[in-house]
Amino acid sequence: MTMTTSAASEWPDLTLFPGVADAVEEARQAVAELRRHPVNRRGWATSAAAAAVRASRASAALDGGSPELNAAAETVTDPVLAGALRCNSAMATLAPIWERAPLQALARLHTLAAADIEEPGALGRPRAAGGELGARLLGVAAIRVTAPWSAPVKVAVVHAEVLSLHPFGSANGVVARAAGRLTAICSGMDQQSLTVPEVHYLRTQNEYRHLLAEYSTGQETAVAAWIIYTCRALVAGAREGKSIADAAATAG
After folding, report:
1. Is the CB of residue 158 less than 8 Å from the CB of residue 183?
2. Model confidence at 9, in pLDDT bands (50, 70, 90)?
3. What is the dihedral of CA 194, 195, 196, 198, to 10 degrees?
4. pTM (whole model) above 0.90
């Protein structure tokens, strides 16, 4: 079963898979509640900035980078963390590109994520042009543009497809998780990027890696399990976002 079909009439209804519809609704409600937090009604930019940092640290750690930030240092020395921070700080700029040209946005994400890792000539360039990789990357773009799925399902599938494909020579995890955040923003579910599902991915990283590996088999049960897991991560990410907003309320 391939998720990256380009014909709209062929998109499977993933919410019919057992457990998916309930998980999707729980995720949507959790994120909507976070958006209604009093702090996020008036000061969401501060919450979003803090969420981006937490997301970057967790995403970097999942790719073997250091999550540590030295407040006294003028620069971030870990290249993986620096790349994750660049990606998450560029969400507002990348969102309109993701809307109209997803492949261009993916290339830009890789350029940001791997700037301190790859040779300049390899930045933003998939490992191979054309063939199955090219077709499936076009399918990822089609998900963003035409797939008739709810936001949590799109977040789950985009994330898994990019990471399963490993389209670039490095930083694929950071790119995939950033693409998931962009999808949450552009779908309207989390327009202000307040959630931090990356923390849940890190805390449950063995399950994360196992379910991703299973997802790549294309089996319906594996796809459903990954979507449900992503929905749980969004719920946990909303709790993480609430902790950020609660702290801001206390400080204020």
Report:
1. yes
2. very low
3. -130
4. yes
